[in-house]
Protein: Glutathione import ATP-binding protein GsiA
Organism: Aliishimia ponticola
Amino acid sequence: NLTTGEKIAAKLGARVETRSVHAVSDVSLEVRKGETLGLVGESGCGKSTLGRLIAGILPPSSGRVTIDGVPVMTHGVKATTRVQTVFQDPFASLDPRMKVGDTVAEGPITHGLTTRADAASYVAEWFRKVGLDPVWADRYPHQFSGGQRQRIAIARALAMKPDVLICDEPVASLDVSIQAQIINLFLELTRDLNLTTVFISHDLSVVRHVSDRVAVMYLGRIVELGPVAEVFGTPAHPYTDALIGSVPKLVLDGDELVRFETIKGEVPSPLSPPAGCFFHPRCALATPECSRDMPLMRPVAGRAEADTRAVACHHSEQLVPG
Ligand code: SF4
Ligand code: MG
């Protein structure tokens, strides 16, 4: 439960109470100051749940999330404004009856970052930073395009001066041309403001573009973690390999050449995860050990530190030899 000065750290499990399953289990993660950590995985893998846990929106059933040692939640209630979130759908997250300037000003006034008297110039400053004309502060959400609304949502989050920003699929609902603009804005802001960011996306090319490190999730667990270029360049987990494998791979079966499907099989139900490695029913490298023993995160072969590059697979040496 962790943490030294400049890090946010999470060690937790989340139980979806209604169904009594762990949506996220045994996750242990540190995000370093100023970095963008990408969180990827198929839909339902728990990446949004993990984002909500880190943001203090959802209480973990065990474990805790801290920023510089200070818990994000106390007694199941969000206890800090140091984490802010940008969601996928900016229209749903903006109050349609409120002028967007008031929406951006609300939190900073409540938390003393500005006063009611100074709010207009405070908001104007944030509007400019996200590429919006400050005169639009008096307009309502429906008067903006999707991309502009996401800029407003970003301004609202950043106006709270967070140390940590959680972005959950922030460009997934936008047109492709607008996606690029928002991503460029995001890159500019994270650099200029030295933000620490967790960037959740199912889109690997987006994650690759914005992240310093990446965590790959499968059925509520992190299965691979490391610098983004290394994880995507030489994946150590068969799931990561399959996830990025747009090029069909050829493998030998006896002396017959067979095609290795990108990812065979369905994602198992989190209600009844398979024994051992959760990925074994879909894994081309699975052995009897895999269906018996759950692999734990360990350093990738040849690496000294677990936090440099880590993987949860019994046979990762087959992908990344030491
Ligand atoms: Fe595949 Fe076994 Fe590694 Fe799981 S532990 S990913 S089943 S090789
Ligand atoms: Mg999601």
